[in-house]
Amino acid sequence: MDDDLRERVERAAETSALYNALKHDSDAQVGAIMGPLMGENPEFREHGSEVPGVVAPVVERVNDLPAAERRERLAELDPDALAELEAEDEADERELPDLPNAGDYGEIRMRLAPNPNGPWHLGNARMPAVIGTYKDRYGGWMLCRFDDTDPETKRPDLDAYDAILDAIDYLGFEPDGVIRASDRLETYYDHARELVELGGAYTCSCAAEAFSALKNAGEPCPHRGKDPETVRSEFEAMVDGEYRAGEMVLRVKTDIEHRNPALRDWVAFRIVDTPHPRPEAADYRCWPMLDFQSGIDDHLTGITHIVRGIDLQDSAKRQRFVYDYFDWEYPEVIHWGKIQIDAYDVKMSTSTIKELIERGELDGWDDPRAPTLASVRRRGIRGRAVVDALVELGTSTSDVDLAMSSIYARNRELIDDEADRRFLVRGGVEKPVVGGPETAEPPIHPDHPDRGTRRVPVEGAVLVEPDDVPANGKRVWLKGFGCVRHTRDAFEFTGDDIDAVREEGVPVVHWVPADGSVPVTLRTMGGDVTGRAEPGIQGYEPGDVVQFERVGFARIDGVAGGDADTSEERRVVAYYAHP
């Protein structure tokens, strides 16, 4: 490759790296720009084996620039590319559609209806993110109603009630009201009694299989014609606990020949022998099914708009039968598709996560490998970032994918300015340093010189990551220290100025002192990673977020080890957030 071609490769690589870094608000990656670079410049292809070696140091230089300088440099190299980026920045983000018939209501009233069978995974966060956003848009009212009327199959977790309210707060919202369905059994009983009086319900003792056969054939249950007095008496016996599970149910009388068998005479109440875990509800045995309980509560709390999964379309249809008996107006309904996420090896399922925790395969709900709100929160990801990414998915009836990169990009915007920079070396290789200053002074934050520098002692030797050790005779720039040449298994200070990086492509690497560095356990989605950080890492409090340069953002969690009876060092534990 001649000098002219090398210069053109460097210029094209710099433009691509700048564009890539600014577009994704992160460091550019050689792999990400190689494809477009070669595709847009066919003359580079015959030198394909040499191009990566030219591109890599260019990318390193770009990644070492503050965001403002990246933008200025791209304006010099390719103003059209910068204009394209700025147009994207200014484009309106996809917003949630307006609520149907919102103008017909004096107040928009919506509800969250979590089942408290465990803390929330990321998919659960979609409901509060969207409903909370609608509440803010319309100046509306939001209820958190715990639908906890299934003491057996989806048995409530007593800790989940507070965990869910805490998660809503983390996302940046506050319910205007909080109720537990398990506190409202007498209300449901009263409405069931009224429904019986209206001729809209009957007690049924058919075996489940027998009723299913009749229902599918469009034939009425033999109990359908019971006189109201008998129905009232048998329902009161259900309430009094005189039947065992499976012996008697209360059914809503619908259309036995309805084209959808799922809507034919559905169960409103059943007997559950398993006591509810809440002491206040432990004595009840006659429990409403969700469609009955939810329908009654939506009316009594004045809900105007319901958001629910498209897989629950039949719920609205079942509830409309009850609303028709009571002559109530049904709320507006928005159905959406399922949310999917593929960034985790663990399934986004409350029961699955709970089982893995019980088996010891996850450390808890905030294990970084778990796709939960507790996990991303402990990693230092702001609730606002989660909300913005979820709201952008809209309310389409199609299934949608939640990209963690979308959450990361939004979180990066929120935390980058305040996150101090620090060095963390993984799998460090020790190299003596010959010559140069005794202390390096890299900036605390490259975009905020007013925040000063941090003092990192060299102390005669440094640790660098294995991939950053150059070939013998080659140079690297130890960030904040200067240029060194790798000779005789040592780093010899050469005294070069920064032009060695800008003009000669000397790679910039991070490092820590071999003596005085601090052991760190970095907890990641892929498991724990160990390394050593510069001494200043010990000055942070749990909850502080730093950026480990060339590694990523992390939340300081605490300090472990260092027992006085052992030689174990005090170890900083940090949770990795994202690049």
Question: Could you characterize what this model shows?
Answer:
It is found in: Cytoplasm. Residues 444-453 have a biased composition (Basic and acidic residues). Residues 107-415 form the Glutamyl/glutaminyl-tRNA synthetase class Ib catalytic domain. This is Glutamate--tRNA ligase. Its EC number is 6.1.1.17. This protein has 579 residues and is α/β, with parallel strands linked by helices. The chain is 33% helix and 21% strand. The protein has 17 helices and 27 strands. The strands form seven sheets. It has a seven-stranded mixed sheet with strand order 12-25-26-27-23-24-13. Strands 21-18-19-20-14-17-22 form a seven-stranded mixed sheet. Strand 23 and strand 24 (527-533) form a beta hairpin. The model is unreliable at 90-94 (pLDDT under 50).
What's the story with the biggest beta sheet? 7 strands, mixed
Structural class by SSE content: alpha/beta
Strand order of the largest sheet: 12-25-26-27-23-24-13
From the alpha carbons, calculate the radius of gyration and give it in angstroms.
31 Å
* Proportion of residues in extended strands: 15-25%
Uncertain spans: 90-94
* Structural shape: elongated
- Rounded average pLDDT: 93
How many strand elements? 27
How far apart are the first and last residues' alpha carbons, in Å? 34 Å
Number of helices: 17
Percent of residues in helices: 25-40%
